[in-house]
Amino acid sequence: MSTSHWKRIVVKVGSALIAPHQQGCSSHYLLGIAQFIATCRAQGCQVVLVSSGSVAAGRHRFPDTAEPSISLKKAMAAAGQADMMATWDKLFDFPSAQLLLTHGDLRDRDRYISIKNTIFTLLDNGLLPIINENDAVTAAKLRVGDNDNLSAMVAAAADADALIICSDVKGLYTKNPNLHEDATLIKQVSEINAEIYAMAGGATSSVGTGGMLTKIEAAEKAISHGIETMIVDGFDADTFNQLLKGQNPGTLFTPYDVPMQEHLHWMMHTSQIQGELIVENDFSADLEEHDTQLTTDDVVAVRGNFSVGDTVLVRKGDGTKLAKAKSNYSSCLLHFIADQEDREFANNAQQKTGPLISDKNIAILEQL
Prior knowledge:
By secondary structure, the protein is α/β, with parallel strands linked by helices.
């Protein structure tokens, strides 16, 4: 493993590192991470920090409740976010900037591009972007839900070379190391498959919401964009010394040799499905390679409400998921065409509008 080629990295820090005792922010475990970030910047590598912890940081300011309500959690996030940013600022001798995002921001293509531009502008002017999900205001349907996946989306938006996910274990083990003494650390993963997902258990931290499963999901998003990804132990200060020496202190996920095209990666891993196009069971799954054009004749049902340009799922009637694609039609127009008994009308409408989806805007789903 070599870190000398890194020009831009994303570091993800979880709630357990920010507020390990749920009594507000603590710099105890953050100092080593901050020193690592400062050293990377001094060596000419740009850094983006994705930091969880606003709810955990603000929890102590409210009545001790075993299961706080959603509104109480939002209040905790609002109070804790300020404390968390103040804690990070104390550890750096360079300026930082706060970006609070929702999945609604990331899944909208125009806002996604705006986020990219903001990140690049901050980096080009020497500021450290510190990014978190906007837990204080976001609705459930607009949430990413965990900062592991958020960090992968940010890494893709930032065109990062590497994503470093700081965990409370050294990396991915063959079994849960907290339950099995014979669990073995996997030092390198060249392909994320069903076997790798089977090794990922639930959350092991009482503070954070992301377990190993979300970290594997994040790694898959990142490596498909050509981003080297590591899961490391953020509680061990020596982790960051090893990283600076080009050593692998945890689990390294090697990136795809041929990364997905940027707009297809966004469609596959960031955009949200707004509806479904149900096609005949014998419809070809390999839309891209064979340049198959999806027409209204191929569609047997339309599900959901979507507009032109929204992402839709193309699947067979038997439930097999084929692709995510950008729709050239709205669901309203498709229902209108389907209601017309005159096939000449439907054919004329399609000749004017074109195919339902374009082969340049299709992300094939190999395994779901």
